[in-house]
């Protein structure tokens, strides 16, 4: 969605009083065991929140630390307190002026000497800050990452090295993170001059991949990683399929019930954000919020929402970074979000006060296609970047002339140029002087693009999975000490409490199928979902309907479904396994037919019975509209190894093979004079790379690979796969 590239506006929200220079002290170091006293005295908190103490001790001892805890968990304290304890200046790298101003203001209110340097401040204020810094009068100095690129700045800092470096919102370092900032990426090059100062990197939103990338980019050899607190016990998460036109009415219905306000609605586009407030009806005070509005209006909407003057804010993702409104009761997503990370951040804004809240995501298969469209647009085919790269040389060219040569509009050029620049293939001097960068940009670009596509598959698979929502989210972030228990309140654990989904009694034909699934499992327990489907049900049932039945069994606690993976030739293949619970076994053995078990079927509000449209994403024909009871015969070979789920597709496609196929496709596209996607779509390319087919038959099973592709290109493709 275009909205995913919007950022929170970097405005100055308030100008705090200048630091109390007189009070600025060079404290004596506090030993790690006595941090509690400093916590009471300076920060005036009664005690540590979970995990804070262990982290603070580690940072105070001078260890490099990566801290991953959700927003609102209290990460700031984990550099602020150790910084004081280490007695010296803590350098804080922060991405947004608003965040910086907010933190500096709070620290100053506590009587601490905090200051900041950023482009939003009046000219000349920097000089005083430099002097204070060099004289050791500052406890904290906040800067934006760009500042470190200003010539001489790091030299200045290194004349008096900070005692601690804190990198807030550290996921911006990683191109796998959802808010990548090239200047954050440069930290790895710029910070060594300031070392051996310990570094603490903080983020609320790093998957294990992003975590590894942060550590690598920063070159932290010995790092302690703390990943905690992703489970939110008070948010009941719900996911429901619903066609787009009906979503507004449902949002209205949901928010119309008592106790559901205040609420945040996340809209996929500005247009939707503008339209929804009216759809909510007169009784609800709602306003939209997006990056297309001017700063003053945005600020006024935000203030009114925070003060309770508005009940609902309808926002693109530009809203929310650094916002702390404790009593949000409902978060609604009007469409499938772009990534699990972003989604988790957004639902996490519900229930900060600890009271029960609900997060509802409305989606449909069409959303996935919309995302694919925007991903294609925002992450252009590498061939297109290559064309731009080829035009560049040592002599500067303007954007205008480049756009003209490529016969594309300025927006399209900017998108390509930005990507090429981020990955080092282009340099931009001054305002508009574009020169050639280094070659070799392609590999990292393709990897980033693949990752982006993988994120979409992952959120789609989350939306469709019949496993406890909270458990899936917690696992996604790799929480270290989580109980692993189902949450008990999401749509999977407690369907009867759903507000968007409806449950109904199962029909006789469904009950017969449910019984058969149980019987099959009794004969052969712990099967993969794919095998169970292929061996027993594929001929008469669409995969999506089968998944629905399985989900119903899981909700009734008759089976459990677990995600699993195995390594195959260096790749991770993911799949799901289904197993009878004790209750399920008793039911199957005791010949209690599923009808006696009172199983309810969950369906979206308007979907009657079985799925209406859209392909089952997990392994049905690519044509998609597999009607209920379709007699579509099985083309797939029995006994073939478990096909990886879509979600695993991108992850399991070896980068080198993706590269090789992309290269080949590029050459072929040139030769034939057609766009690359006409040869093989990205998804199909990824699919081929993941499946590594040995022959035409297995190749034709890859989604997106049609007879035409086979006819024209199978030999080439198979050769590349064999060579790999
Ligand atoms: P994060 O950076 O993890 O999103 P913050 O550091 O901004 O979270 O903290 C969120 C809120 O929690 C702040 O209002 C902060 O003052 C408060 N807080 C942090 N630590 C404690 C504590 N030990 N006791 C009470 N409140 C705390
Ligand atoms: Mg924070």
Structure description:
The radius of gyration is 27 Å and the shape is globular. The longest helix is centred in the middle third of the chain and has 24 residues, at 441-464. Strand 14 (426-429) and strand 15 (433-436) form a beta hairpin. It is of the alpha/beta class. The protein contains 29 helices and 20 strands. The structure holds adenosine-5'-diphosphate and magnesium ion. Magnesium ion binds at residues 75-76, 168. Magnesium ion is lined by residues 75-76, 168.
Number of E strands: 20
CATH classification class of the largest domain: Alpha Beta
CATH superfamily of the largest domain: P-loop containing nucleotide triphosphate hydrolases
Low-confidence stretches: 1-24, 605-647
CATH architecture of the largest domain: 3-Layer(aba) Sandwich
- Biggest sheet: strands, sense, closure? 7 strands, parallel
Total domains, how many? 5
> Separation of termini?
34 Å
- How large, in whole angstroms, is the Cα Rg? 27 Å
Number of helices: 29
**Structural class category:** alpha/beta
């Amino acid at each position: 969605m275009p909205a995913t590239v919007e950022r929170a506006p970097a405005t100055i929200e308030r100008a705090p009083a200048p630091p109390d220079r007189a009070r600025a002290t060079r404290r004596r170091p506090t030993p790690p065991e006595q941090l509690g006293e400093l916590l009471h005295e300076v920060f005036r908190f009664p005690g540590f929140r979970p995990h804070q103490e262990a982290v603070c001790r580690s940072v105070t001892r001078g260890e490099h630390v990566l801290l991953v805890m959700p927003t609102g968990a209290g990460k700031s304290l984990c550099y602020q307190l150790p910084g004081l304890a280490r007695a010296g200046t803590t350098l804080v790298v922060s991405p947004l002026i608003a965040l910086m101003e907010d933190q500096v203001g709070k620290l100053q209110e506590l009587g601490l000497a905090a200051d900041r340097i950023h482009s939003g401040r009046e000219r000349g204020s920097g000089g005083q800050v430099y002097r204070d810094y060099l004289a050791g009068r500052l406890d904290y100095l906040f800067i934006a990452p760009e500042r470190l690129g200003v010539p001489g700045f790091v030299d200045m800092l290194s004349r008096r090295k900070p005692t601690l470096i804190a990198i807030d919102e550290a996921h911006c370092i990683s191109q796998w993170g959802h808010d990548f900032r090239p200047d954050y990426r440069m930290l790895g090059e710029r910070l060594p001059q300031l070392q051996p100062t310990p570094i603490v990197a903080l983020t609320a939103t790093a998957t294990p991949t992003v975590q590894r990338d942060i550590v690598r980019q920063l070159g932290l050899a010995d790092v302690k990683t703390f990943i905690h607190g992703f489970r939110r016990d008070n948010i009941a998460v719900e996911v429901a399929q619903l066609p787009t036109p009906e979503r507004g009415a449902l949002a209205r219905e949901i928010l119309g019930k008592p106790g559901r306000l205040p609420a945040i609605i996340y809209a996929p586009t500005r247009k939707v954000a503008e339209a929804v407030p009216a759809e909510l009806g007169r009784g609800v005070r709602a306003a939209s919020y997006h990056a297309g509005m001017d700063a003053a209006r945005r600020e006024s909407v935000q203030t009114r929402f925070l003060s309770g003057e508005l009940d609902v804010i309808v926002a693109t993702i530009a809203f929310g970074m650094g916002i702390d409104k404790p009593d949000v009761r409902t978060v609604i997503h009007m469409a499938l979000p772009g990534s699990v990370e972003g989604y988790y951040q957004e639902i996490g804004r519900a229930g900060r006060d600890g009271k029960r809240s609900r997060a509802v995501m409305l989606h449909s298969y069409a959303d996935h296609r919309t995302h694919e469209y925007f991903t294609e647009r925002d992450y252009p085919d590498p061939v297109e970047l290559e064309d731009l790269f080829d035009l560049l040389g040592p002599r500067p060219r303007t954007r205008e002339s480049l756009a003209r040569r490529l016969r594309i509009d300025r927006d399209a050029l900017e998108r390509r140029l930005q990507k090429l620049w981020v990955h080092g293939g282009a340099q931009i001097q001054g305002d508009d002087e574009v020169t050639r960068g280094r070659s070799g940009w392609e590999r990292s670009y393709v990897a980033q693009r693949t990752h982006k596509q993988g994120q979409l598959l992952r959120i789609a698979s989350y939306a469709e999975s019949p496993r406890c929502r909270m458990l899936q989210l917690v696992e996604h972030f790799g929480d270290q000490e989580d109980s692993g228990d189902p949450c008990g309140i999401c749509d999977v654990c407690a369907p009867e409490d759903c507000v968007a989904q409806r449950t109904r009694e199962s029909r006789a034909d469904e009950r017969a199928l449910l019984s058969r699934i149980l019987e099959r499992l009794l004969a052969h327990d712990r099967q993969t979902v794919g095998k169970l489907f292929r061996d027993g049900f594929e001929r008469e049932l669409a995969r999506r309907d089968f998944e629905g039945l399985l989900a119903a069994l899981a909700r009734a606690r008759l089976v459990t479904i677990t995600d699993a993976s195995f390594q195959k030739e260096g790749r991770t293949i993911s799949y799901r396994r289904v197993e009878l619970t004790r209750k399920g076994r008793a039911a199957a053995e005791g010949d209690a037919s599923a009808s006696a078990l009172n199983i309810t079927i969950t369906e979206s509000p308007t979907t009657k019975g079985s799925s209406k449209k859209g392909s089952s994403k997990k392994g049905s024909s690519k044509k998609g509209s597999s009607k209920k009871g379709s007699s579509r015969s099985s083309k797939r070979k029995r006994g073939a190894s478990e096909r990886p789920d879509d979600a695993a597709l991108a992850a399991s496609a070896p980068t080198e093979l993706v590269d090789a196929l992309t290269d080949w496709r590029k050459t072929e596209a040139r030769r034939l004079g057609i766009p690359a996607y006409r040869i093989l779509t990205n998804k199909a390319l990824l699919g081929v790379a993941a499946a590594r087919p040995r022959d035409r038959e297995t190749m034709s099973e890859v989604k997106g690979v049609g007879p035409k592709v086979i006819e024209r290109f199978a030999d080439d493709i198979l050769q590349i796969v064999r060579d790999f």
